[in-house]
Amino acid sequence: MALKPKPRTNALVRLLGVSKSYTQPDGYDIPVLDDITLDIEPGQFVAILGPSGSGKSTLLRIITGLVSPSYGTVLYRGRPLDGPNPHAAMVFQSFALYPWLTVQQNVEMGLMAKGMPLKERHERARRLIDLIGLNGYEDGFPKELSGGMRQRVGFARALAVDPELLLMDEPFSALDFLTAENLRSELLDWWLDHQLPTEAILMVTHGIEEAVFMADRIIILSKNPARVVADLSVTLPHPRNRKASEFIGLVDQVYKIVTGWDEAPTAAAAPADAPAAGEAARLKPIPTGHLSMLTGLLELVADRGGRDDLYHLGSELLLEVDDLLPVTDTAELFHLAKVEEGDLILTPDGLKFCEADAAVKKAMIRDELVQIPIFRLIERVLRSKANGTMGREFFIDILEEHFSAEEAEVQLATAIYWGRYADLFHYDTDAETLYLPDEEDADSEAR
Ligand code: ADP
Ligand code: MG
To answer: Can you name the residues that pair with 221 across neighbouring β-strands?
Structure first.
């Protein structure tokens, strides 16, 4: 369909044929967004729904003006966006608070950048801290707060600059179920009661129920590259009842549209009224298998024709089944083998893995890791940082929202170990920071 931009529009944001490609280290361009054309009108609460890696965050960054499209135009109130949009503010999944600043200082951050005088700044921040229910915590540091409270600070900081457009990138995904549910309802109340300075909200999510619960309009993106596959309006009155047949019907309809997605089969298969089915808010723990043991085990099984009895393997490797299971779980997670009737059976990829040299093994593991939520989380956070670096404590804090303190340590240690092996990210033991490898390093290693 030919583009016919209407010259007269009330749209706050207008995207015209926006496309974005990223150049890979090998020089090849990968298209992420393809020909996205849409308007966002004042008064709308829009949810953008798309699978992980589809380009939702990229789209938000383009709307904030932090990233420019490869093709196409972004208009804000009818004017082409040129550089960061001062009328937009963003809430991040990972909260992205400054750990060395207090709650109050974090909220004031954006105001300082705008050159607002101290007194006014203080007052405005206080008011917002009050609105979000954190009074008494002004002088606390992010570390002392729960995930839910930190995200409240994230909201206050974004709202402090009186944004006309509030952008939210999976704002509830890192929170536990109840905390997320409370914060969703509160945000909706503020919005519906006109307590927000904001004219429109654009929320990126991969939670279908979350979108149907909150938004007036749901835009569904495909993946590789992302195109708009549906643009639905949601007219159900608030507060929405998740058990109502209209609600379930709409959730079903969205599920049908997204069944083309190449992931989240469990979410799609879950009954529509199962709480948080579409949210996948909780991180699944990764098994803690040692990669050297994994390689050894797979090679042993390959020597035996690709199938062997687990008990037999364990006794030969002097391993109890309890020690062997994290390794076989890891093999299954990486699609290299499966366990059936007490046997470990290599998949075709598993056989290929055994024959591959170290570089190919690495690449195969890397391809698997990028599909796993905890690695996506780490990568997303690192990519969101200009220097590609983030302290381990930050990740521990996030993981503690999902696991016990002890398990969070184990999960991060395993993730770091695998991530380093696959060159997905690296770890500086002295500084205790995770960081992205240099593009150049990745490039030379790819050769
Ligand atoms: P989503 O938010 O939907 O998960 P993203 O917008 O973060 O997706 O990323 C979409 C795709 O673009 C991913 O494959 C990601 O690896 C890639 N990508 C994102 N940012 C960059 C970048 N700065 N350089 C190269 N590739 C990127
Ligand atoms: Mg994203």
So the answer is: 228
pLDDT at residue 7 in the model? 47
Distance CA(143)–CA(128), nearest Å, equals 20
Spatial distance between the Cα atoms of 238 and 255, rounded to a whole number of angstroms:
21
CB 186 within 8 A of CB 118: no
pLDDT band for position 278 (cuts 50, 70, 90): very low
- Going by alpha carbons, the residue nearest to atom 27 of ligand 1 is 22
Ligand 1 and 54: CB distance under 6 A = yes
Which ligand lies nearest to the CA atom of residue 54 in the structure? Answer: 1
- Closest C-alpha to 206, from 144, 159, 268, 248: 268
Measured CA to CA in angstroms, residue 300 lies from 305, 333, 336, 356 at distances of 9, 19, 13, 15
Do 426 and 437 meet the contact criterion of CB atoms below 8 Å apart? yes
3-state DSSP assignment of residue 4: coil
Please state, in angstroms and rounded to a whole number, the distance separating the CA atoms of residues 220 and 117: 42
Q: pTM, whole model, 2 decimals?
A: 0.61
CB atoms within 10 A of CB 258: 23
- What count of other Cβ atoms lies within 10 Å of the Cβ of residue 6? 8
Q: Which atom of ligand 1 is nearest to the CA of 204?
A: 2
Going by the DSSP 8-state scheme, the letter that residue 373 receives in this structure is H
Query: Do β-strands 228-233 and 426-428 pair in parallel, antiparallel, or remain unpaired?
Result: unpaired
Nearest to 43 by CA among 251, 215, 295: 215
